[in-house]
Design a protein that fits this description.
This protein is α+β, with helices and mostly antiparallel strands. The chain has helices at 10-20, 33-44, 64-82, 155-173, 176-179, 185-188, 196-207, 345-348; strands spanning 136-137, 142-143, 227-229, 235-244, 250-264, 273-285, 299-308, 335-336, 359-360. The chain has a domain at 136-360.
Length: 363
Amino acid sequence: MDKDGVSIPDEEWERFLRDSGVAAPDAPKEPSARARAVARRLREQSGEPVGWRTHQPVRRRRGKGWYVVGLLVAAALLVVALAPGRVSGWFGGGGGDSTPLAAESVRPDGPPPTEAAALRPTLDEPFRGSPAVRWRDGTAGIHVPEPRATGWMSEEQVARTLDRSLDFLAASSLDRDVLRGERPEKAIALINPQQRDMRDYLTTAFRSPSRENNPLTLFSRFDATDIRLVGDVVKTRGRLTYREGKRGAVEVTADVTYVYPVVRAAVGSDEVVRTIARRETVMSWDDPAKVYIKPGTFSLVSYRLDSTNGGCDTFTGYFAPEFGTRRTATDPGPSVDPYERSTTMDERMKDASDTRCRRATRS
């Protein structure tokens, strides 16, 4: 009978007892759907049983591909951190890092790297594949030291002397008209006109150039009827140094490498080659009270040239680069790396008596 006094039929009561398990206390109980699901999960797992009310965050399934990509990205970042100069070449362009190098204030301890040497220069990228791609343009690539009072000059006078020395390098090796074959009048005007041996040398060098009287030892010139410069940039790397010389003079030494990209002058020429010249010029800025000299000029103490692809046994007063051929390791002459600046000019020129054409290991 229910709470309202209504009798429950016997069939309904028996069904209730049977379903609730009261009528047969020893009968096996059928687990609920949730219990069956938990039991199945426990059988499939090898770990500790998980309580029904225990919370576990849902784990996102990650494919192996993402794991591999993550490892590759991490490795690439490590390479960038350890060797950034090697990375930019992976993506084409000029090959290698193009970030300008810091000034060469001291002699380097070895040659520049060669990993991009296989890349050939183009009209758009004339320094491609060479260390010069990271060198600075024009006089910006020539380190000028801090001035200090030296010899007969004050600190301010030394500063002006260094500027004039840089002017000579620009007028002799970077001036566009001179590079196209014109006479280097501005540069010559900075040389002491009272230095008789130099007057004779310059007169002979421009009139009848020869191995002994070669204007290229001091000036960079190309014959414009045959050769045309590519673009408006000449890359340089080097430095000025100075010391007290004879009779209190300020003696300035310029050790600079110049890289000139050129093509044939013929219309439509697109094969770019490079002439590379390293010059060491020693200039003595003398005290006018002790030396007969025109104020604002210097006396040349010494001057030397080491060049590659500028013409071999050709003394016309112009650089004469070769096109279409590259010397091989079987050539009889000694090899030289034109970008190597860790050796002194004395070491570089010790084989000057060897008149054989030297082979450049790269251009």
